[in-house]
Design a protein that fits this description.
The structure is a homodimer of 242-residue chains.
Chain A: E1 2-9, E2 12-19, E3 22-28, E4 36-42, H1 52-63, E5 67-71, H2 83-97, H3 106-130, E6 134-141, H4 144-155, E7 159-165, H5 173-177, E8 183-188, H6 196-205, E9 211-216, H7 226-240
Parallel strand pairs in A: 4-5, 4-6, 6-7, 7-8, 8-9
Antiparallel strand pairs in A: 1-2, 2-3, 3-5
Helix pairs in contact in A: 3-4
Chain lengths: 242, 242
């Protein structure tokens, strides 16, 4: 893991890093000591590690004392897309142009992305651990970040609390059933790409004794701002106050 | 409204009152000035205004600076039950003794209770308002307290935020559709007396632009303690920070 730049904003430090092909960022509160509780932020499809919404969310978590790490998905945020990924993205775009629903395409696309990103997230955790950066670890991701977060949380024992959501159950119920860490799960009640029943089925399938569904009105992109506060409190409850 | 006793506990004041047949309690934080934000606490069936769970919850809200008022339902907490209510209660008990599900009895029972309690809550608010006790008003009630809270919030414009839940949709969707204040709605995912679909249908029917469903695993009586904190923050957001 090579840190390629270090800047600061409102006292928080931001360090860009590379790890093989992975491009990522590690944020820390002003004057942070290590190790400390760390939140992994998984971005959605078409976004990247420093997309505005994700950045605002990172700063909310920093304000509560967490370190935050994010990596770009392949084909996102300046990382090149493989031919396979280009073909998948093109197929989704063609379907959208034809006015057909694209939601049913996501499980297949996200499964391929998870096949790449679960090992990338784990390698990132390995490197951060070698650098002494890892206390308790949480994962936050919705939409593509949620569909990747389910197999990631199932595979990675260092993750001990997760906020997930905005994802269909297709192909994810088995991994979800093996997850036993506390989960907060976001549903948009009028999601245009994730059918309500499919989202509820995914929530239903988590094996966690503590899991909470938060559903709000509106479409896929309309998660209300107060859910970020709620996520921060969820992570504080499980990663800090114990 | 006659205050019949005043005591204090951990600095908070507790004043018991009567208003006609109604028996109630008004709690206030230490050194409270009036008017201040007020939360109405509606108890569940078979409970009363100072049942242990409700009392703990009142103290949680007091800690955040709210005043809290609760009244006993007819036939609860020492208030006499009418012949009609005795017949209803007996019918539910017979059904339970016969090993049959009692959940389907609740909408009818709760509708009768709401017919009595909506005017009682409104009279209580009138009296508290005359006493200068009313700032912004919220209502918290689940199970019977939720089934009463829906028509109450629909009828009473002084209530501007409500936490409701653990109730079937039967007979409540029309009143719910007329509610436009922010609502936080609690669902127990494995509720043995409220079918999941019926609870989700009631959430779906609220007319509120801001409504949030919080669903947790477990049965009717198993709402996790962290939901009380979440309710307190919901009321702070809507009754205080504006």
């Amino acid at each position: 893991m090579y840190f390629t730049s270090e800047t600061s904003f409102n006292g928080a430090s931001e360090r860009l890093f590379t790890l093989g092909d992975i491009t990522g960022v590690l944020w820390a509160p002003a004057g942070a000591t290590w190790p400390r509780p760390l939140i992994l932020l998984g971005h959605g499809g078409g976004r990247h590690k420093k997309a505005p919404g994700l950045l605002a969310q990172a700063h909310r978590f920093l304000a509560d004392g967490f370190a935050v790490a994010a990596i770009d998905a392949p084909g996102h945020g300046g990382r090149p897309a493989s031919e396979q990924q280009q073909r998948m993205t093109e197929a989704i775009r063609e379907r959208a142009d034809a006015g057909e629903p694209i939601g049913p395409m996501f499980p297949g696309y996200n499964a391929v992305m998870a096949g790449w990103m679960v090992p990338e997230w784990r390698a990132t955790l390995d490197a951060l651990e070698r650098g002494g950066h890892i206390g308790a670890v949480g994962y936050w991701g919705v939409s593509m970040g949620g569909a990747i977060g389910v197999p990631l949380a199932a595979a990675e024992p260092r993750i001990t609390a997760a906020v997930l959501g905005l994802a269909r159950s297709d192909g994810l119920t088995e991994a979800a059933a093996s997850i036993t860490i506390p989960v907060q799960f976001l549903v948009q009640w009028d999601d245009e790409v994730v059918p309500r029943d499919s989202a509820l089925a995914l929530f239903d399938s988590f094996g966690s004794a503590e899991k909470t569904l938060h559903a709000n009105p509106g479409g896929h992109m309309g998660v209300p701002a107060f859910e970020v506060d709620s996520s921060a409190r969820f992570f504080t409850r499980h990663l800090v106050s114990r």
